[in-house]
């Protein structure tokens, strides 16, 4: 595992030194433990659930905490509604340590800690933009943070050495540290994380009473749109409640726009109705163009959709033959149709090589399901 983490992060020696205490042995806490241990860092784990703690230790995320541990860094990875309580406890228990948390909401815990008069000199809130639909120590992965943004919320009182410790942790785990204020962070995640979760859940909720024949028509578009709807309700109730105001602001704006489009479609032949729909779609195009892509670029690619037999080794053969053609795969999406013995691999390639890739694959016997115009 060490070699794979080093290869993916480019880290040869850990910036993080000493003992790291991770409180909360769920998905994020255990993933942090796995990644740090792969770099030779001493990781101790604590969790309110003895069973969860034993499971995380058994999987190799760290060792159980001992009374004489003296951590240099404490990472709090607990549900949002108890972050402030745990951070306060850890600051008092380990006054010589830097304490950070990885909760997805930053402002509410900070307000709670300030209201209690807690000395926050050595506390730095942070948030890795990483996760999975499944939680718990059993789902933890050492590479879950690789290439992901890791927000670090410092203030003017934050010692430079403390900031370096938290940013070093993010870098050790292969993430990209980004400094933001708690207010900036919470507004940002409301837009790019919390509201998308609600939209996905609301749309997927429409499937509950939908006819089975309708759902058989579902393709990759609706699967992409609703993938995160599989997330845990208990966690999201806490996240959304803690970041309610910024989420409501985005939802109100979105609701107004949905109402406008619904009004336009009630009378699609009315003057301006078609333009309203077209403008909405175009604005979505413009928004997607602003999303950072590979290597942070806003670069457009073209797609080839290739039929791949559902047998072992076929996808590997496809990649191998694209490599022989000198074609780099910029992105990949897979779709399986119900009952079909093949999948559709949508390969994104640079526009300048799409025809070369198409001709080379056809010559090698691959079937192109769609050919760009």
From TrEMBL:
Signal peptide: none annotated. Residues 18-295 form the Prephenate/arogenate dehydrogenase domain. Belongs to the prephenate/arogenate dehydrogenase family. GO terms for biological process: tyrosine biosynthetic process. Keywords: Amino-acid biosynthesis, Aromatic amino acid biosynthesis, Oxidoreductase. NCBIfam families: PRK06545.2-3, PRK06545.2-4. SUPFAM superfamilies: 6-phosphogluconate dehydrogenase C-terminal domain-like (SSF48179), ACT-like (SSF55021), NAD(P)-binding Rossmann-fold domains (SSF51735). Pathway: Amino-acid biosynthesis. This is Prephenate dehydrogenase. GO terms for molecular function: NAD+ binding; prephenate dehydrogenase (NAD+) activity; prephenate dehydrogenase (NADP+) activity. PROSITE patterns: PDH_ADH. It holds the Pfam family PDH_C. The lineage of its organism: Bacteria, Bacillati, Actinomycetota, Actinomycetes, Micrococcales. Gene3D superfamilies: 6-phosphogluconate dehydrogenase C-terminal like domain, NAD(P)-binding Rossmann-like Domain.
């Amino acid at each position: 595992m060490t070699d794979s983490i080093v290869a993916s992060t480019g880290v040869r020696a850990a910036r993080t030194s000493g003992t790291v205490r991770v409180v909360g042995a769920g998905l994020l806490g255990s993933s942090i433990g796995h990644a740090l241990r792969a770099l030779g860092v001493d990781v101790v784990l604590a969790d309110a659930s003895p069973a969860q703690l034993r499971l995380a230790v058994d999987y190799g995320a760290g060792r159980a905490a001992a009374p004489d541990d003296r951590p240099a860094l404490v990472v709090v990875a607990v549900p949002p509604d108890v972050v402030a309580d745990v951070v306060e406890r850890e600051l008092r228990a380990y006054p010589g340590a830097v304490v950070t948390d990885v909760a997805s909401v930053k402002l509410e815990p900070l307000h709670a800690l300030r209201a209690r008069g807690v000395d926050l000199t050595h506390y730095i809130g942070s948030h890795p933009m990483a996760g999975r639909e499944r939680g718990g120590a059993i789902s933890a992965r050492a590479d879950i943070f690789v290439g992901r943004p890791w927000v670090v919320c410092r203030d003017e009182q934050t010692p430079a050495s403390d900031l370096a410790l938290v940013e070093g942790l993010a870098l050790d785990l292969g993430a990209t540290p980004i400094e933001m204020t708690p207010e900036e962070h919470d507004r940002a995640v409301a837009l790019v994380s919390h509201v998308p979760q609600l939209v996905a859940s609301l749309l997927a909720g429409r499937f509950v009473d939908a006819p089975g024949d309708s759902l058989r028509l579902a393709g990759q578009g609706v699967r992409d749109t609703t993938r995160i709807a599989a997330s845990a309700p208990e966690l999201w109730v806490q996240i959304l409640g803690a970041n309610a105001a910024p989420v409501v602001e985005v939802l109100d704006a979105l609701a107004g726009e949905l109402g406008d489009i619904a009004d336009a479609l009630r009378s699609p032949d009315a003057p301006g109705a078609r333009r309203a729909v077209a403008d909405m779609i175009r604005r979505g195009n413009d928004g997607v163009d602003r999303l950072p892509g590979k290597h942070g670029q806003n670069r457009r690619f073209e797609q080839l959709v290739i039929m791949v037999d559902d047998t072992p080794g076929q996808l590997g053969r496809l990649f191998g033959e694209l490599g022989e053609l000198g074609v780099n795969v910029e992105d990949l999406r897979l779709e399986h149709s119900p009952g079909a013995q093949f999948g559709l691999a949508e390969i994104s390639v640079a526009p300048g090589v799409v025809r070369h890739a198409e001709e080379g694959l056809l010559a090698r016997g691959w079937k192109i399901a769609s050919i760009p115009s």
